[in-house]
Design goal:
The complex is a heterodimer of chains A (about 575) and B (about 450). Chain A is about 30% helix and about 35% strand. By secondary structure, chain A is of the alpha+beta class. Chain A has 5 domains: about 200 residues, 2-Layer Sandwich (Nucleotidyltransferase, domain 5); about 100 residues, ATPase, nucleotide binding domain (Nucleotidyltransferase, domain 5, 2-Layer Sandwich), CATH 3.30.420; about 80 residues, Alpha-Beta Complex (Actin, Chain A, domain 4); about 100 residues, Substrate Binding Domain Of DNAk, Chain A, domain 1 (Sandwich), CATH 2.60.34; about 25 residues, no CATH class. With about 450 residues, chain B is mainly alpha-helical. Chain B is built from 17 helices and 3 strands. The longest helix of chain B has about 80 residues. Chain B is elongated, with a radius of gyration of 61 Å. The model of chain B has no long low-confidence stretch (mean pLDDT about 85). Classes of the chains: A alpha+beta (about 575), B mainly alpha (about 450). Chains A and B meet through strand 8, strand 12, helix 4, strand 15 and helix 8 of A and strand 1, strand 2, strand 3, helix 1 and helix 2 of B. The complex binds adenosine-5'-triphosphate (ATP). Chain B: One of its GO terms (cellular component) is cytosol. Chain B: One of its GO terms (biological process) is 'de novo' cotranslational protein folding. Chain B: It comes from Parathielavia appendiculata.
């Protein structure tokens, strides 16, 4: 990052750092207070600050104030632009800009033409998306500086996992133009994981984590292996259909229809830009209210044709009309797990991140998709869950505090691909243990997808004491499916019966479906013992004793095994050379 | 990481386990047992890793490029698969006619159709949005050009909704694979052609996996399995997509109900037709299936073989029985003949013995006559009677063998004293044996 042609930043000792999440819909700023990350409220009291700028009579507004101008001043309001950074016009999706300043082609990049100066006849300006980003970041950093009482100089900013190098470079340049040093760009889902792992009470353990980042204009699902506190992304899935705006639209359609039904002859509020903008703002507010309560009101003054409109909706109704979106999100999460070559049974933790993750139905659906012992970290399923809207900013703030004392050159070298690209083991390595039935089972010690070199130490029990065997083996999992007893087919199996039945097979079919859903197959993850790597003996263990086994896998896949009785002296140590 | 406590128990050391320093290296980790992946440069543990990895070393841009190339990619921004030329006629379509539009073609997924994954559909949609968004056209000075964009939205709406997509896939004729014609079949390739048909039909199956058509090497079980599956095909295909529009207003209640009933009947009819179509397909296919013929022939051959074997066995058994009977008859006959011969032999022997007895008796009587009844001169009739009476008495006391022995001793003797001597000793012997009382046969014993 030092060699991006950007002027060099401040000395480490002179930095004031924050974490920033910079979304298409909302942005947040966070800093560290006593080792705890905290999201900062801006001067409007907002912690989720809409990523919007609006110009009225030469005055610049940002955040919620700018968002409110979408009704009265859409042409001079710029929204949903983050994803356009570093992109050409032909490869952007202008869908969400329809109700505000429209993006246009401008040389290699995208620009917006707005009236940002005072005076009726002042010439409009054409602002490149980089310029818009710079102006917005300046306001964001300004709010943070005001809150902290000193000028913020540097930040860690989160970006989607599919941000290209070009987009990253554009963002760094836009920040630099706002006098902000980007210490590091980190992936949004990883920031969310760090926000959880950075809590003092979190114990670092090996786990497979799915981050469902459900925002306003996009949903991004990331499957990652968390191994010894280090994170490796195994798969990602992106979706631009099933996201917050789609839920807004469901409510907009619902209330627009209700409005027209109530006021026969009234025009469709969706056909008029201003009515549509009002409809959208209120629909979003109603949607948020439905995340907390089971009932929400919807009320807009002068929605269309000068008619006021007020109504209510309960959560059940909302969940019914929004079913398609909810189901789409569920499939998206499922597809990402599959893409990683994993099964839902492999997943230890699902982190719900992003504003839309407040929706209780989404968490409930995921609760149902994953097995019971998978933790679903969302406000409605886990009391200790962190506010999904704050995860990324908090993670960014934590990372910022970790690296704020590094020279820019050091950060660059440490995040270099030569450091980050390392071999990860495919199979697990563990020892043979006995289950209650006395059968040999695999006890994983180094799980698959662990970056090497890696070292893991475990304690295993030796209830009978005496001499015990530490047999080091490879292992991998497979999913065992137990099918329910096949049900006797009702339809006679003869050919003739089939044809005669054809007439009323419609009804038959639906019956059949219901029946089939009741009988679920049982799926479980089982470890399979692979090839034996080594054997070691720990002798004269006392009754009820524990044995400590430690396995170190070196980058050349050579393995060092040590085993000893906990509290005892001596022990075994052996090395297994690599193939 | 600190040591974690696992709820597992270690096995005891097997009897006789021995190793130097209590450690045995046995195997090696699986070949190619690692994947190059990219660690996220985030968090305290990564920074510790980076410190260890760098350890006073700096990396060059080359190292970066090389390392990046080695790393397994998790982001795939490649959507080249979805690129087919857009038919200019299609671009003119009116979104109102969405029912008749080919949703896959609109999204550029003609080649994939029902096989397109949800992710492919999303990516295809995105690609089309980027190209056809009306706001982009407006920016280029072409206002109100959103007809095709609406077609794209409609196509995506249908294809991303699993229920609607099935309804459309049910009537997606472009995905149909027509059964092979006689002419095509005449050129061979029977298996390939039909496999293609059933692969396409399999898209409607509620049950998965669908058994594959196989080829000439399929086993009888596989082929039977295939036809069983298909003759009992459980299809989700339905025909509501072809419904006629039902009036939306509340005024025309009756008409609405009428239309709904009409649609329901039409669906049923089409479903029945589809079932019949599939059955005909199967009948046609199985009629030409050489494997079925072959299995039938093989079954027949097997049956024939059994019959022949049975017949042969029966014949063999009959032959054996006949031979056995013959042997038994022969043995019986032989036994009978033998018995007869024996009977005759014994008869002869008896006769011979009788004759011998007669002859010996004659010898006995002759001897006393030769000895002139043990008197000088002519013997009186009384003497002759007495002697012959005693001879008779003795004859009655001895059996044939003693008789023969006695006759043997007497035979050839002419001297009366010698003859007398023989008789005398015979009488004495008989007296000694208690067969003759002292004083009996005094003419011979005196
Ligand atoms: N309490 C809530 N319940 C339901 N939805 C909410 C809630 N709070 C925020 N949202 C929705 O979350 C979305 C914004 O998500 P977020 O703040 O994560 O934005 P973002 O990361 O900028 O999203 P993107 O980049 O995808 O546009 C909006 O659609 C908003 O309506």
């Amino acid at each position: 990052m030092a060699d991006n042609g950007v002027k060099s930043g401040p000395e480490p000792s002179e930095r004031t750092t924050i974490g920033i999440t910079f979304g298409n819909s909302n942005s947040s700023i966070a800093h560290l207070v006593d080792d705890k990350a905290e999201v900062i409220a801006n001067e409007d009291g907002d912690r989720q600050i809409p990523t919007i700028l609006s110009y009225v009579d030469g005055d610049e507004y940002y955040g919620q104030q700018a968002k409110n101008f979408l009704v009265r001043n859409p042409k001079n309001t710029v929204a949903y632009f983050r994803d356009f950074l570093g992109k050409e016009f032909k490869s952007i999706d202008p869908t969400h800009n329809h109700a505000s300043a429209h993006p246009q082609e401008s040389g290699e990049t995208v620009a917006f033409t707005i009236q940002d100066k005072e005076g009726e006849d002042a010439a409009p300006s054409t602002l490149s998306v980089s310029e818009v980003a710079t102006r917005y970041l300046r306001r964001l950093v300004g709010s943070a500086s005001e809150y902290l009482g000193k000028k913020v100089t540097s930040a860690v900013i989160t970006v989607p996992t599919n941000f290209t190098d070009k987009q990253k470079a554009a963002l760094i340049a836009a920040a630099a133009a706002a006098d902000l040093e980007v210490l590091q760009l980190i992936s949004e889902p990883v920031a969310a994981v760090l926000a959880y792992d950075g809590r003092a009470e979190t114990k670092i353990e090996d786990k497979i984590v799915v981050v469902a980042d459900l925002g306003g204009t996009r949903s991004d699902v990331t499957v990652l292996a968390s191994r010894g506190g280090m994170y490796t992304i195994l798969a990602t899935a992106h979706d631009y259909e099933f996201a917050g705006f789609a839920l807004d639209k469901v409510l907009m359609d619902h209330f627009a229809k209700e409005f027209m039904k109530k006021n026969s002859g009234a025009s469709d509020p969706r056909e008029n830009a201003r009515s549509l903008a009002k409809l959208r703002l209120e629909a979003e507010a109603t949607k948020r209210a439905l995340s907390l309560g089971t009932n929400a009101s919807f009320s807009v003054e002068s929605l269309a044709d000068g008619l006021d409109f007020a109504s209510t909706i309960n959560r059940l109704r909302y969940e019914t009309i929004a079913r398609t979106v909810f189901e789409g999100l569920n499939r998206l999460v499922g597809s990402a797990v599959k893409k990683a070559g994993l099964d839902v049974l492999d997943v230890d933790e699902v982190i719900l991140s992003g504003g839309t993750s407040h929706t209780p139905r989404i968490a409930a659906n995921l609760r149902y998709l994953f097995p019971q012992n998978t933790r679903i970290l969302a406000p409605s399923t886990e009391p200790t869950a962190i506010n999904p809207s704050e995860l990324q900013a908090r993670g960014a703030a934590l990372q910022a505090s970790l690296i704020q004392d590094y020279e820019a050159e050091d950060i660059d070298q440490s995040t270099h691909a030569a450091v980050t690209t390392v071999p990860h083991v495919t199979n697990a390595i563990g020892v043979i243990s006995l289950n209650e039935a006395g059968e040999e089972t695999f006890a994983p010690i180094v799980p698959p997808e662990t970056a090497v070199p890696a070292r893991r130490t475990v304690h295993l029990s030796a209830p009978n004491g005496g001499d015990v065997l530490v047999k080091v083996v490879e292992g991998n999992t497979h999913i065992k499916v137990t099918k329910p007893e096949p049900k006797a087919k009702e339809n006679g199996d003869s050919k003739a019966a089939k044809v005669e039945d054809a007439d009323d097979s419609d009804e038959d079919d639906s019956d059949f479906d219901d029946d089939e859903e009741e009988e679920e197959e049982k799926r479980e993850k089982v470890w399979k013992i692979g090839s034996t790597l080594a054997e070691a003996a720990v002798k004269d263990v006392k009754k009820g004793g524990k044995v400590e086994v430690s396995i170190t896998v070196n980058s050349d896949l050579s393995i060092i095994v040590t085993a000893r009785e906990v509290g005892g002296k001596g022990g075994v140590r052996g090395t297994l050379t690599s193939a | 990481m600190e040591a974690s406590v696992l709820p597992f128990t270690l096995p005891s050391l097997p009897e006789g386990w021995e190793a130097e320093n209590s450690f045995k290296a046995i195997g090696k980790t699986t070949q190619g047992g690692t994947t190059q992946r990219t660690l996220e440069p985030v968090g305290p543990y990564f920074l510790a890793h980076a410190r260890r990895a760098r350890h006073k070393r700096t990396f060059s841009e080359d190292d970066r490029i090389q390392a990046q190339e080695r790393a397994k990619k998790v982001e795939d921004n490649d959507d080249s698969e979805i690129s087919e030329p857009e038919d200019p006629m299609m671009l003119q379509r009116d979104a109102k006619d969405w029912k008749t539009q080919d949703h896959y073609k609109v999204l550029g997924l003609s080649r994939y159709r029902w096989k397109a994954t949800e992710e492919q559909i999303k990516r295809a949609h995105r690609k089309k949005v980027l190209k056809h968004h009306p706001d982009k056209k407006a920016a280029a000075g072409r206002a109100d050009d959103d007809n095709f964009f609406k077609c794209i939205q409609k196509a995506t709406e249908v294809l991303l909704d699993p229920v609607k997509r099935r309804q459309f896939d049910s009537v997606d004729e472009e995905a149909d694979v027509e059964p092979p014609t006689k002419k095509q079949l005449a050129k061979g390739n029977y298996y390939k052609l039909w496999a293609h048909v059933f692969k396409s039909e399999a898209r409607f199956s509620k049950v998965h996996p669908v058994p594959s058509f196989g080829d000439e090497n399929s086993t009888k079980e596989e082929v039977e399995n295939f036809y069983n599956f298909w003759y009992n095909f459980d299809s989700w295909r339905s025909f509501e997509y072809l419904d006629e529009d039902v009036p939306d207003d509340n005024e025309n209640r009756d008409q609405k109900r009428h239309m709904e009933r009409k649609n329901a009947n039409a669906r049923k009819k089409k479903k029945a037709e589809d079932n019949a179509r599939l059955r005909k397909l199967l009948d046609d296919c199985s009629a030409g299936d050489e494997r079925i013929k072959r299995f039938r022939q093989e079954a027949n051959a097997a049956k024939n073989k059994k019959r022949l074997e049975r017949e042969a066995a029966e014949k063999k058994a009959a032959e054996e029985a006949r031979l056995k009977k013959e042997a038994e008859e022969k043995a019986a006959k032989e036994a009978e003949e033998k018995a007869k011969a024996e009977r005759e032999a014994s008869k002869k022997a008896k006769e011979a013995a009788k004759n011998a007895v007669k002859k010996n008796k004659r010898v006995l009587r002759g001897s006393v006559k030769d000895a002139n009844y043990f008197v000088e001169g002519d013997a009186s009739a009384a003497t002759i009677d007495a002697v012959l009476g005693d001879v008779e008495l003795i004859q009655g006391k001895i059996d044939a063998d003693e008789l023969a022995a006695l006759a043997g001793k007497l035979n050839g003797l002419t001297v009366p004293d010698k003859i007398k001597g023989v008789w005398k000793s015979e009488v004495e012997r008989l007296v000694a044996a208690g067969k003759l009382k002292e004083g009996e046969a005094k003419t011979l014993g005196a």
